[in-house]
Amino acid sequence: MNTNKNSYIFIYATVMIVIVAVMLSLASLLLKPKQDFNIDVEKKKNILSSINITAEAKEVPDLYKKHITAVYAVDANGKVMDGVDALNIKLKDELVKAPENRSYPVFEAINKEGEKLYIFPIQGKGLWGPIWGYVSFKEDLNTVYGAVFDHKGETPGLGAEIAQPDFQARFKDKTIFDETGNYTSIKITKPGTTAPTIHNVDGISGGTITSNGLGLMLKTGLENYIPFITTKKDSL
Known about the structure:
The chain is an alpha+beta fold. It contains six helices and eight strands. The protein has one domain. Strands 2-1-3-4-5-6 form a six-stranded antiparallel beta sheet. It has a two-stranded parallel sheet with strand order 7-8.
């Protein structure tokens, strides 16, 4: 074949593109099980972190089985749904649906002290992208036991501080209902402007937009579980 012809260049380029595409597809196919496993471990690790259980990746599967006692999804009316893989629900996809078509994951857990807890995942938006988290509640379904938050691209030293343990610890023992049973959520306030109460925590200095996004995520995210919480309380 004459390598100086344009046809040779075209054929060579086409063959190389096909080879590279096949190699990339094969690599993706071979790596997918590992990627799916890592995603699963990371999710379970965050769920465990919300009940103050830290674990290395290799420890996560066993600890998850030990402490997470039930996983299910509820609808907008708080009713448990049959045949739904709650663990693999992508909350960001659910939130773009009409409320009546959504599925909300619920995790029941037992902590190290043998106390029963409920864990609710939430999803929102920060300054530069999505933020998300898991909030665990004591059996009264009002008092926060623990919380873990994460983000995709918040500013280091500012909004990214929501992922730090010292910030997340501020949520412990906060409550989302007032004395009369009305839903208040947990408000994120500007540091130093409001005395801490059982319904608010200090936000992040210099991370106002992320703090506001977190506050909105808590308010709307936990509000989705109010019908379930109400139903659960009525059955106690």
